[in-house]
Design goal:
This protein is mostly helical and about 450 residues long. It contains 21 helices and two strands.
Length: about 450
């Protein structure tokens, strides 16, 4: 009977078992468990999982404890591989542990508990939780029964993988050669040797050592002829060769690429955070400056301007104006601050569109830093202060002759262009020049400028 016929008869037997109950066929659970193992041999994992689920569906009783626990462990193993459902696998292992906590397992209890805890740790390895898995495996390996030496070595291989993933390469390489596995079963010995070399290759791949990985694979292939005698003509050599030989370099390169990507991601996030912090700081600084400027302009707009006004009786847009000193009364300035205001009002420097803070410092015989310190109690900066004088002068001109054009007015008051004049006028008075002119009394609007 070939393997195809065997698999077909196994499916028929599964259908037959589904038609009977445990009472009608007392060995139903035993046969279902054995049949599940047969489906695993044929790699028919769906049927194997379904049969194991049937066995564990009934409550655990003293008479079926052994077979039910075996089915739980087999189901957990199948859910881990090939299904990759680690949460469901963990649930099976924990169900056995919870049962033991309530009613201690009567047969091979120590071995069952080790397998359950080891399975939970292996699932953490497959999830990538290497730190937690390493701690669990270190504790479990120390309590593995002597007759489970093969399983102990199996756990050591996963512990080596954890150490490699955590960067503890020397510990990973030290574990495997030191372990001496004793078994009387030739088949188990061959598979232990095989997995030993396979995991040597895995450790080398995790550390990016392709040369060591290939050497380990050569040792894997050297045991192939012996293993073939125990696998009934399965294409074991080709499976291992096609998977490991073709993927070992790719796996090592993938690990290096992943590390580089993680570094770049961390650097990118750090730069993004720094950029956001700088933008927020600049926005806050600009916002505070705007608030300060607004308050200063509001204070200047409501300042008590003296009635001493320049003589604008003979304003001519083609000639330089000869004005009298104009003063602005601000809250109790100190003596140096009064000197600045006196100089500006006496020399009418605000009428010069090219006048700068550097020229004012030079004309007053002081340095620029000291000038800025003297200006700060009066206005945020030189431009704000000088524009306040220019705007007030524009108000006086409009009160004399509201018919003056905006362009003429801006030129007479020391502004370079109409837009700058409009912005400064609005910042100081809260109105545009046109709005301000429209609010003047009819008498002032009709009064000629040469009167």
């Amino acid at each position: 009977m070939n393997s195809t016929d065997t698999h077909r008869y196994a499916v028929i037997l599964e259908d037959a078992l589904s038609e009977v109950t445990q009472e009608e066929f007392p060995d139903r659970h035993d046969n279902a468990c054995n049949l599940a193992s047969l489906f695993v041999h044929f790699k028919d994992y769906d049927h194997a999982i379904a049969l194991n689920r049937q066995v564990v569906a009934l409550p655990v009783q003293p008479d079926n404890e052994r077979i039910t626990i075996v089915s739980y462990l087999n189901l957990a193993s199948l859910l881990t591989y090939p299904k990759g459902d680690f949460d469901a696998s963990d649930s099976c292992y924990r169900h056995v542990l919870n049962y033991d906590a309530v009613s201690p397992i009567r047969e091979d209890r120590e071995e069952v508990l080790v397998v359950c805890r080891g399975g939970l740790a292996v699932n953490n390895v497959r999830r990538g939780n290497y730190a937690e898995a390493a701690d669990s495996l270190e504790n479990i390996i120390n309590v593995v029964p002597p007759k489970k030496s093969v399983y102990r070595y199996h756990l050591l291989l996963y512990l080596a993988e954890c150490y490699s993933a955590l960067g503890r390469v020397e510990e990973a390489q030290r574990i495997l050669p030191q372990e001496n596995v004793h078994t009387t079963d030739v088949r188990d010995s061959l598979f232990v040797t095989f997995h030993h070399y396979v995991d040597d290759a895995r450790v080398a791949a995790l550390t990016g050592n392709a040369a060591a990985a290939c050497t380990a694979l050569d040792n894997v292939f050297s045991t192939q002829s012996h293993i073939e005698n125990y696998n009934s003509g399965m294409l074991f050599h080709e499976t291992v060769k096609s998977f490991y030989r073709d993927n070992i370099e790719h796996y090592a390169e993938h690990l290096r690429d992943t590390r580089r990507q993680n570094i770049l991601l961390i650097v990118g996030i750090a730069l993004a955070i720094i950029a956001i912090a700088v933008i927020l700081w600049m926005y806050r600084k600009k916002n505070l400056a705007y608030i300060s400027l607004t308050e200063t302009n509001r204070r200047l707009a409501h300042a008590d301007w003296t009635t001493e006004r320049p003589d604008v009786s003979n304003v001519d847009t083609n000639t330089e104006l000869d004005t009298q000193p104009m003063t602005v009364t601000l809250p109790e300035p100190s003596k140096p601050e009064s000197d600045i205001r006196t100089f500006i009002e006496t020399h009418k420097v605000y009428l010069d569109a090219e006048y700068t803070a550097d020229r004012l410092a030079h004309d007053m015989g002081i340095n620029r830093t000291y000038l800025s310190r003297l200006i700060s109690p009066l206005a945020p900066n030189f431009n704000t202060l000088i524009n306040a004088y220019r705007v007030r002068y524009a108000q006086l001109l409009l009160e004399k002759d509201a018919a003056l054009s905006i362009d003429t007015l801006s030129t007479l008051c020391g502004f370079n262009n109409r837009r700058t004049f409009g912005n400064a006028f609005r910042n100081v008075t809260g109105l545009t020049p046109s709005d301000y002119r429209s609010r003047l009394t009819p008498a002032s609007q009709s009064k000629p400028i040469d009167e």
